[in-house]
Write a structure and sequence with these properties.
It is built from 6 helices and no strands. It has helices spanning about 1-25, 30-50, 60-75, 80-85, 90-105, 120-130.
């Protein structure tokens, strides 16, 4: 049991020194520092409040994945946006994935669609389904 406690203490000390490194690092962005400080404050507040109000523990279901995602974002080296803006930087990649739909439904006009504009699409869809592509004019 003593070895387990020492191992946990050593890992906690390594984790704390890594956080300390991210807070003191000179090229560390303000968003990264804010994330670390806000995470520490929110986790400690939830722990303090949960001592008096026990149903508050469910907040960890929301808070823990966000803190873990933020720690991962700060330590990864592939994307500078995610490293400098933990958790919020992921919004860029999510919005990048929905960009074609946003352009198609909110920005694009009826005549500038690619490869087909919105005026010709119903005609193409009817022809693809082997439905009559002629529409009556008048009553």
């Amino acid at each position: 049991m003593h070895c387990f406690v020492n191992s946990v203490a050593k890992n906690f000390k390594l984790l704390f020194t890594n956080f300390k490194h991210y807070l003191i690092k000179p090229n560390c962005s303000m968003a990264r520092k804010a994330f670390v400080i806000i995470s520490i404050i929110l986790v400690s507040k939830v722990i303090l409040v949960s001592l008096f109000v026990t149903p508050i523990w469910w907040l960890f279901v929301i808070q823990a994945p966000l803190v873990i995602l933020g720690i991962y974002d700060m330590t990864q080296t592939k994307h500078a946006i995610r490293r400098n803006f933990p958790v919020i930087g992921n919004l860029r990649y999510m919005l990048e994935g929905v960009r074609p739909e946003i352009i198609q439904y909110f920005i694009e006009t009826y005549t500038e669609g690619r490869p087909l504009d919105r005026i010709d699409r119903p005609l193409i869809y009817r022809r693809a389904q082997n439905v009559s592509d002629t529409s009556p004019f008048g009553a």
